[in-house]
Amino acid sequence: MNISHEDHPDRTVVQVSGRLDTLHAKTFETYVVDIIRDTSAQIVINMAGVSYVASSGLRSLLIAAKQMRAAGRDLLLSDLQPAVKEVFDISGFSSIFRIV
């Protein structure tokens, strides 16, 4: 998995690629939580390069979303691949996140 981010005037975009699975979920969670703590901007997680999300990856996303809500912001997800979108739909996570 690869993670990077770009800061824009009104938002920070986190680019994720690879598998968001048990092996990588904690690294992803730490990365995103650090960004949430360090910026007051809107955060968008671009998941165009994510081919698979395991339950541990969903948990990491949920932790990040809760941190954002505590900060009075929403965590946005963008560009979900069809297979990943299906996991979100089946698990009910599509109703938890703002997917753009």
Walk me through this protein's architecture.
The protein is α/β, with parallel strands linked by helices. The chain has a single domain (2-99), classed as STAS domain (Transcription Regulator spoIIAA, 2-Layer Sandwich). The chain is built from three helices and five strands. Strands 1-2-3-4-5 form a five-stranded mixed sheet. Strand 2 (11-20), helix 1 and strand 3 form a beta-alpha-beta unit. The longest helix is centred in the middle third of the chain and has 16 residues, at 55-70. The chain is globular.
TL;DR?
The protein has one domain (2-99): Transcription Regulator spoIIAA (2-Layer Sandwich). It contains three helices and five strands; from the N terminus they run E-E-H-E-H-E-H-E. The chain is of the alpha/beta class.
Task: Considering the chains and any ligands shown, give keywords for the structure.
100 residues; Transcription Regulator spoIIAA; STAS_dom_sf; 40% helix; alpha/beta; Anti-sigma_ant; Anti-sigma factor antagonist; 3 helices; 5 strands; STAS_dom; 34% strand
